[in-house]
Specification:
Aspartate Aminotransferase, domain 2, five-stranded mixed sheet, binds pyridoxal-5'-phosphate, seven-stranded mixed sheet, Aspartate Aminotransferase, domain 1, 2 domains
């Protein structure tokens, strides 16, 4: 029956498991371990566990399993493994499947920590990584080789909001048998059809829109049953990095309201981007849902709407700092997808580690501010931003 449900129904009901008490709201099983009736039962469970048979919370837990099943159903993936953070998910998706000598092609516009894994960690273990401009299909085609094992990209890059063509890159990767791993945070599960468009593995930082209220770190890897149980689970269950049951419960509750929140935030983001662009004072307003965005048509085809994040360029770090310090409602922080609107200066915070050359190549200019639009009144947010733009 669940297979025919639409996303909003799955986000509320999929994956629910009830105890003997038939509780309405999902229970939090704050237990690290599980009891076996007999020594033979313990032995049997270690050989092969059934659907509702757990061993140790590092391997799996009923509350975590509910979250994994719900988000997998929502994404249209066969299975999922929840992790302690988004970075634990990105790391495990790559490390679990790669070995020395393998070749990976990655978009170069990445979140700072994703870049660290691809550039510093994988290469230390003998994995060769080729970076490309993710929006340039000819560059992907030239970089993907017959021996390429995986391609990796953020479907919308952080913080420059480049949109990458999942379908086209997947077709190129699949032609050589490479696995397509998509970090889909900015698309959100609400607007994602990444699996339908060809992604083999979809990764989320659930810290962002899935919690959506800035409470807990989390991540999830979604893919085929074979990839999740055969490749990811053995790696994660022995290296740690499991999601806590309490976090899984927060994420389950977050999924129930995610569609409403993300759609409201997206509608607000479009109104704000449109207003700031029309004012004509800022050097640049970058938002995938604006007709002026270089991948506007692709965004419409791939996601429908432009998402909850926009970036603005003030022209200089001094102007950016003045604007940030003049904000009243919008807070300076570095989460995104939160109910609270948040402004970030990537060049001096999330992407500080990068050299000036790399920042310039990635479009992380000194004046760039990333704006995650929250759930406040849109008119209040526009007034706050207009006041701060006037102050810069
Ligand atoms: C935040 C983020 C991550 C990391 O997630 P954490 O939960 O903070 O570990 C990875 N990729 C993207 C695109 C992100 O925005």
């Amino acid at each position: 029956m669940m297979k025919t449900w639409n996303k909003r129904t799955k986000a509320v009901h999929a994956g629910a498991r009830r105890s003997q008490y038939n509780e309405l709201s999902e229970a939090i099983y704050l237990t690290q371990g599980f009891v076996y009736e007999t020594a033979e039962d313990a032995e049997a469970r270690f050989i092969k566990s059934g659907e509702d048979e757990f061993i140790y919370a590092r391997y799996g837990n009923p509350t975590v399993a509910m979250f994994e099943d719900r988000i997998a159903a929502l994404e249209g993936a066969e299975d999922g493994f929840a992790t302690a953070s988004g970075m634990a998910a990105v790391n495990a998706a790559l490390m679990s499947m790669l070995r020395a000598g393998d070749h990976v092609v990655s978009a170069r516009a990445l979140f700072g920590s994703c870049l660290y894994i691809l550039e510093e960690v994988l290469t230390r273990f003998g994995v060769e990584v080729t970076f490309v401009d993710g929006t340039d299909l000819a560059a992907w085609e030239a970089a993907i080789r017959p021996d390429t094992k995986a391609v990796f990209f953020e479907s919308i890059s952080n913080p420059t909001l480049e949109v990458i063509d999942i379908k086209a890159v997947s077709t190129l990767a699949h032609a050589v048998g490479a696995i397509v791993i998509v970090d889909n945070v900015f698309a959100t599960p609400v607007f994602s059809d990444a699996v339908g468009q060809g992604a083999d593995v979809v990764v989320y930082s659930t810290t962002k829109h899935i919690d959506g209220q800035g409470r807990a770190l989390g991540g999830v890897i979604l893919g085929t049953k074979e990839f999740i149980r055969g490749t990811v689970e053995p790696y994660l269950k022995h290296t740690g990095g499991a999601m806590s049951p309490f976090t899984a419960w927060i994420m389950l509750k977050g999924l129930e309201t995610m569609d409403l929140r993300v759609r409201a935030q997206t509608a607000s983001a479009l109104l704000i981007a449109t207003a700031l662009e029309a004012d004509g004072i800022l050097q640049n307003v970058i938002y995938p849902g604006l007709a002026s965005h270089p991948q506007y048509d692709l965004t419409k085809a791939q996601m429908g709407l432009g998402g909850t994040v926009l970036s603005i360029d003030t022209g200089s770090q001094a102007a950016a700092f003045k604007l940030l310090n003049a904000l009243d409602i919008i807070t300076i922080s570095n989460n995104l997808g939160d109910a609270k609107s948040i402004a970030t200066h990537p060049a001096t915070t999330t992407h500080q580690r990068l050299s000036d050359d790399v920042k310039a190549m990635l479009g992380i200019t000194p004046g760039l501010i990333r704006l995650s639009v929250g759930l406040e009144d849109t008119d209040d947010l526009i007034a706050d931003l207009r006041g701060a733009v006037a102050a810069q």
